[in-house]
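hey so u asked for the seq, here:
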Amino acid sequence: MEATSKNLTSYLKKYFGFDQFKGQQHEIITSLLNKEDVFVLMPTGGGKSLCYQLPALMSDGVAIIVSPLIALMKNQVDAIRGISENDGIAHVLNSSLNKSETKTVMTDIKDGVTKMLYVAPESLTKEEYIDFFKSVKISFFAIDEAHCISEWGHDFRPEYRNLKAIINKIGDAPIIALTATATPKVQEDIQKTLGMQSAKVFKDSFNRTNLFYEIRPKVDQDKQIIKFIKQNDGKSGVIYCLSRKKVEEITQLLQVNGINAIPYHAGLDAKTRSKHQDMFLMEDASVVVATIAFGMGIDKPDVRFVMHYDMPKSLESYYQETGRAGRDGGEGVCIAFYDYKDIEKLEKFLASKPVAEREVGMQLLSEVVAYAETSMSRRKFLLHYFGEEFDDKNGEGANMDDNMRNPKKMIEAKDDAVIALNVVQKTNQKLKLNDLVNVIVGKETSITKSYNLSSEDFFGIGKAKEDYYWKSILRQLIVRNLLEKEIESYGVLKITKAGKDFISKPTSFEIAEDIDFKKLLSEGSFDKEETSSAPIAFDDVLLKQLKDLRKKISKKHQIPPFAVFQDSSLDDMTMQYPTTVKELTNVFGVGEGKAQKFGKEFVDFIAQYVKDNDIIRPEDMVIKQVADKSSHKVYIIQSTDRKLNLEDVAEAKNMTMSDLLSEMESIVYQGTKLNINYYIDEVLDEDQQEEIYEFLMDADSDSMSSLLDEFGDDYDEEELRLMRIKFISEVAN
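ran it, structure tokens below
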């Protein structure tokens, strides 16, 4: 059928009731009806489905639509049947059908009733289906969620790789490939694999101008989340976690704090999932705590915030998940909590994967780290990742992220930019970002050794500055197109023509240094600047006075200040203003033992301060913990009293050693003694113990980073954590 503007619009009205097309839909459909291959890159909510549904209804024969998710197929088939008198107009063909249902599908296709057939890629591989499709007229093939074809996509499915070979067997018909997230690398991969390099490419902007992007360090995370939700009472939101266990924990925590939250993950049965989905859509629940299983095919337009409790594994996932906010064009706040330790956990998990998968996974993770730590416009960074340019001064939504709302001090880095570009050149343009940083700061690694770089005069040329500074330089060079990532060997940095011009004639290169999250996290606090959400108020005057009081008490007891109360506990006191020892136990990191031992002077001081300054205490903001959050507390105390081996204790409770140590830390920091000398004596000799003990006695902080800086070469993290538990137990409790 020749596609004219007039008949396309009349068909659109007839089938879908719309008077006009959205974005590039008209051009896409016209190309497909004219038998051209088409590649569509369109963000979620842009109207991708219509691009193949309307031409299928207008064409002779049946359109085969490949989709990875049975639930999505079902939703789409139900929607198409809703606009037609005949249910046979759209069918699903997958493993869930019995013989007679499969026969009905084939009869409807033969009779020319079916215009759209949704199939899973696995179903297409069956010889009997291939033979059947050869015998009927195919109008075109639509490959939905086409990023599944690429190993570089965030949702790779090996069975998608064979699609081209199967399509060739069935016969010649145009292909339309559609995806909501694809980097230039993934796009190239899709087109190559499907043999559609000459396809017409349609790209919609990925810029969601109404979304506000913010990254926060993982400090007092639970408290931050509860306060944010309470300050945004009545608004719908989604909180994404990486594990089912964490989903259940956070849901429970929100519920005990009076927030109407429900969990959603693949471990729940289908009936519960469907019920929770409906509760969210019908506003019987305001917050869904979910794994990434949630959201596929969910279209709630008024989600006002999306939080990431853990950073996702790729920027594609992040973009897709944040994209569930503000679909109606209204407010959409996207907050992600970041701690590099979480990335390290994901790296450990990847280490067990095959080499190719590991390499891809590591590269995708490094992009997530770069995004989290950058001080430049997050929108510009994100859009650049998807191959789109953005003006961070005047572009639409330019002021909608934490970095642009609270810009960091800019520094001139022209000379250092030239240094970095020269190192890329002198290493023959074959290194990835982290390897280049190691060369610049003079850090020996297996890569620098294999290329024998340590003997070069440029090795260590920038060692006077920190790693994260040079990462910042290189990332900015990429975003400003002076460097580019090579598409074939993704991640390897090459100099562009603009980069070569810059070396010969440098111009101003102002940057904001990236955020050193490791430092922020080790300090146990962060600068809570005002963003789109209401700020979390700290009483700085009281905080200073409490620190002085802590110092006085620590001198009296001859112990370090952190052994009295941690910084995070003081921060919390300046928000809650506890005036009794009982109220003090609601403060973060303060248990009954600690409150009894040191609390009286603090609560008396705060009570006087509240009175003198006419302060109204925010009692409603006290965060209630889930009853006995450390469910293993009694068992651990009893086990250490009985001098049981700690590995056996961990195993008995199905915990890792790291999890057990976290539980023990929680116990001693709240003021309960644990005697683990019997175990430590087996691990460390007397001199070693004394060395660490003395360091902690004189230290300003008990953070792991300060311990690792001092002893990281001599002791592993587990040994240092054990010594810290012993120290706090003996000195502070």
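DSSP finds 35 helices and 17 strands in the chain. The chain has five domains: 5-203, 211-405, 414-508, 538-621, 633-732.
lmk if thats what u needed
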